[in-house]
Amino acid sequence: MVPIPKPPKQRIIGPRGPRGPQGPQGEQGPPILGPIPTTNLLYFTFSDGQKLIYTNADGLAEFGTTQILSPSEVSYINLFINGIIQPQTAYLVQTGVLTLLTPTAPEAGVPITLQFILINL
User: Fold this and answer.
1) Dihedral angle sign, alpha carbons of residues 43, 49, 51, 52
2) All structural domains of the chain with their residue ranges
3) DSSP 3-state assignment of 72?
4) Is 96 exposed, middle or buried (0-12, 13-18, 19+ CB in 10 A)?
5) What share of the chain is helix, strand, coil (3-state, %, to 5)?
6) What is the mean pLDDT of residues 88-92?
7) Are 112 and 46 in contact (CB under 8 A)?
8) Residue 62's pLDDT band (boundaries 50, 70, 90)?
């Protein structure tokens, strides 16, 4: 025989009680020693309207680095297409290669900027 489940208890919510006393002050953290040194490198190219894969050879030296760095060498990577940051699900970065994971390429002439941020501790 299957037991019949009991109906859930009706929950009654009363008024909020008074605020409790404040706890003791916590331990002071370490002092901030100043700005964290970082390096910001930019790989820059323009879309040709067809390609979804860009390599070091497509980089424009007059605007930044021509190297697409390995994700293991940097702290953060951001991709901007036409100045708009792209979600990480829209691209893949490997040493020397940027792959756009979109169904179509950006329009011809649209700037593509890959930002590499290195935190130098």
Assistant:
1) positive
2) 38-119
3) helix
4) middle
5) 5, 30, 60
6) 97
7) yes
8) very high
